Known about the structure:
Helices cover 32% and strands 26% of the residues. By secondary structure, the protein is α+β, with helices and mostly antiparallel strands.
Amino acid sequence: MNSWRYSHSSREGTSHQASGSPCQDSHLVSVVPDQQGRDVLVAIVSDGAGSAAHSEIGSRLICDTIHNQISHFLLGVEDISTTQKADVDEWMLVAVETLERQALNESWAIRDLAGTCLICIAGCDHTVCVQVGDGAIVIDDGDGFVPALWPQRGEYANTTTFLYERSAIDEAQLIVLPKSDRIAVFSDGIQMVALDFTTRAAPSTFWAPLFGFLEQQPPGSSDPLNMALAAWLDRKPLLARTDDDRTLVLASRRNP
């Protein structure tokens, strides 16, 4: 039986609606078996660059390719705590090669497929988090909500790192943490309200109600639950703070 409850949604930013451009965020979340058949949550979020011509395609390719890589990886390891930077580098290298093939087939520049990459793998005993670019991963460490990794900033103001860039794989952040029963992965479209940038914290006033609602739902995911999250992401108070695309993945295996 699936031990996780999870909900997920990507919503188009108001600036994209005004310009007629599509939602450039992508995400993928699933529960996959490890080598011993235990439930492992895999959540991936990619924010396509607003300046890139086909970043909605790039972000989808990043999510799909890395999810496939992780699914195969989990079948070959007994414990995800042994995940190494070399493993992450390989997943990302395969994703970059996929972007390169797509760009070549379409006669595009690879920068047209630019996207960030956030990965969370939550197993029975450990949680693995990976970050390239902005957005963030928040977990409950047992004492409250904390950012697992902090959004990466680029060399210049209001810029970040994208996976296709030469330095991105080298600069990818990896952290292996103890087991967490509550996971959130989100794009930069909501990071200004989901994080406290002064204290580098994840306010419980923001996160506790979301997880409280999720944990009242049946195990697994459902269209009504995802529609409820989409409606929450479209609330006027949130839209007043951001005009960017918004993606949020919430997952919990805590019982009500």
